[in-house]
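--- STAGE predict ---
source: upstream dedup step, 1 unique chain passed
mode: sequence only
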Amino acid sequence: MTPDWLIPDWPAPANVRAFMTTRTGGASLAPYASMNPAGHVGDTLEAVLENRRILRAELPAEPWWLNQVHGHCVVERVDGLEPPCADASLAHRPGQVCAVLTADCLPVLFCDRAGTLVAAAHAGWRGLAGGVLEATVAAMNTPPGEILAWLGAAIGPDSFEVGDEVRLAFMEQHPLTAVAFRPAFPGTLDEAPRKWLADIYALARIRLAAVGIEAVYGGGLCTFKDARRFFSYRRDGVTGRMASLIWLE
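--- STAGE serialize ---
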C-alpha cells in the first residue's frame, strides 16, 4: 500500500516543506500496522527501520527524533548531536528536518513567512497546559505576525474525555478556554460535571492567539474516530505513532 501523507494546506513559503504520516504504507504488523516510525512502542526493530527507510526517501536528511516527555522544552537542531529530551525543535538551516511523534496528542508545525526557520511541537494536554506552544514561539524569536502554524491530526472534541483537573489547569491560565470544554455526561442542574470533553484544537488556537499567532491552519481531524488512517493511544492502547515533519529546502 502506498504511504498516505497529510500535506499542510497553508500559505507557507515555497522553500518550506512539511507533511504528517498516516498509518498506511509501512511494514509493521498489527497492532502497529503499518507505517509506524516510533521505536519506543514495542514494534519490531526491523519494521521500524524499514518504515524509517521509506520515510527517509521523502526527506533531505534523517529527522531529529526527540525523546518526548510531555513537557515544554524547545531545542534548536544541531547536526551531529543526539536528540535531547524535549517536545519541540526548530531549525534555521536548509535540510534540517524537525519531527514529532503523536497518536492523539496534537502536532503543531511552524514556519515564518520569509522561509528562514521552521519548528515542530508535540502538544499533549500536559505540554499544551505547560506552555510548549508559547515556548516554541518564543524560541523562534520572530514577530508573531510573521509566524504561520499548522495543526495536525489529533483526538477530536467528541472523543477527548478529561477530568476536571485538566479543565482547571487551562482555565487558571486562560479563562477563555472554558469554551473548549463541555460536559461529557450532562447531569442535573445542581450537579457539577466530573468529566469533560475537551477541544484540543480550540485550546491550541486560544493559546496561540494569546501570544499573537493568528495565522493558524489545519485542525478538524480525529485520530480516535478514524481508525483506518490514524493511530490512537486512547482507542487502542498498544499502537504506533504518526510523524509530523518540517524542513527548509
